[in-house]
Amino acid sequence: MMLARLLKQNREIKEEFYKKIAEKHAMEKEKIKEKIDDAVPGFLGKMLKPAADLVYNLEQKKKDDKGENGEFISFLKFFLVLPSEWRIINDVVLEPLEDEFIQIDHLMIGPPGIFLIETKNWRGAILGKKDEFLRKENNKWVKTSSPIKQNYRHQKLFGEWLKREGFEKYIDLIFPVVLFVSPDLLKTEDCTMPVFDSGLALSIYLRGKKEDCLSISEIENIANRIINAKPFTKLPVTEKIEEKQKKNPRINQKKKW
After folding, report:
1. Where do the domains of the chain lie?
2. Average of pLDDT values for 120-148?
3. Which runs of consecutive H residues, i.e. helices, occur in the chain?
4. pLDDT tens figures, 62-76
5. 114 in the Ramachandran plot: left (φ > 0), alpha (ψ -120 to 50) or beta?
């Protein structure tokens, strides 16, 4: 059996994304410092700034901490179980709108559609109900960020990116999925998105989908556009007018009085 193909996003282009993201973080830090100056002027404000900087960095680290080992094991299971028609792209970074970035852990494209996999390497017991999640920490249940809500944001913005690339007809074929790679216990109830407790379970789920919504050439075309995706650029006014004219040919027609 031929295995799924692994593709990688263009490294140089990806560095451009990370540079823009770093610039955005720097601007956000400056805004926080300005707010401190306004709220707490003088010596106390100066004392608070390093603490605010530290809190911001810790929050970003939490967001960025994906658990690379768990993700790699999941990828191996996808790679070994899915057939050759599938394309797997790990750690995809896109800028669908100006200064709006998404980082998709695994993006998988096959005949049934485009699957956005949000991976969490959370340990311990996890409960999910109606898209809200609790984690057990020190024998207490603590509310945590919802990977389902996070992935719905990815779905929406990825749809915006498809529109910009002229792939609007594929928007209904975007399917977000959540994967926990190493939970001790996972229970979900009334969640609006599929949630899996292992890469193998998710791979079997994907392999079981028999719909042929995308042809091989469409799969290749979408995948190649993703791996070569560039940061958001504003269209010049003339190009915007031309784009509107293409979408609405009536703009080109002179009114008859």
Report:
1. 8-65, 66-230
2. 94
3. 11-39, 43-64, 68-81, 147-164, 199-207, 216-227, 237-247
4. 444 444 444 555 566
5. beta
